[in-house]
Amino acid sequence: MFKKLLAAIICTCFVFCLQAQELNARVRVIDNQMPSTVDRKIFRTLETVLTNFLNNRKWSQDNFKSAEKINCQFLINLESMVEPNVYNASITIQAARPVYASSYVSPLINFKDASLDFKYVESQPVEFNDNRISGADPLASNLSAVMAYYAYIIIGFDYTSFSTRGGDPYFQKALNIVNNAPEASKISGWKSFESNNRNRYWLTENLINNRYATIHDVYYTYYRKGFDKLYEDEAAARLEVLNALLYLDNLNRETPNLMVVQFFMLGKADELINLFRKAPQQDKTRVVEILSRLDITNSNKYKQELK
Fold first, then answer.
1. Which residues form the signal peptide (predicted)?
2. How far is 117 from 77, CA to CA, in rounded Å?
3. What is the pLDDT of residues 281-299, one digit of tens each?
4. Low-confidence residues of the chain: pLDDT under 70
5. Judging by DSSP bridges, how do beta strands 23-30 and 86-98 pair with one another?
6. How many CA atoms lie within 13 A of 206 on its CB side?
7. Which of 51, 93, 152, 267 has a beta carbon 3.0–4.6 Å from 173's, enabling a disulfide?
């Protein structure tokens, strides 16, 4: 009897290990702007609930080892309390990808979404169903829909960085959320006519639209053929990163002001400067020219650091 029980326990543990979830997420709720009368305990509970929601749910059919989990962080900045339990907030999503044969992690996503309106009542579970995204209370459903959307986006970009078009199934899942997103007067971020083409709708549209398919080559070339090969041949790997930037520059020339182009560049400035600092002068000149078009905000920084 004991042997059977032990075998059952071992089997259960083995299955659990095989079905390890994809994300290693941390959620932080910034409540500095909330009224002093509000009990901060609810926000600490919300952090725990959302962390468990992201980390304990299985988002794909694949089995991730513990070391393969995607490190990511969600910063929810509460900006106002519209009414009891209803909040207007922004959310910053950050994710990183390890570089092969090194201790370095490269930023994969560093994006601030300014449109997070939601309802949260302490002790109520945060639930999500791919087949029924909008529940009876749209503002409550919006919280889980936004978190699930970015979970799929993170996983999609991670897969794309390892395999050409590898993230497509997860971008399709994100599209499904966009198409079935909760609707209410206070909810925004899901529609094509909102936010000057800079919201969840447009990010997904850019990723699904075959007209912009080059973006998938950009991610694969930048990470898998570029950074992952630095340990083998730094000069050749750096050239692949330059090729990725050339693809991105061509895409930007064909369709200026495309959201996914700017999305890619967010958080990349220091990484690119460090990579090309040791490059031949002709490559430095070339990359500064490209980056000054792609990342106008950091144009002077590139010019100063890569002289």
1. 1-20
2. 11
3. 999 999 999 999 999 999 9
4. 1-20
5. unpaired
6. 23
7. 152
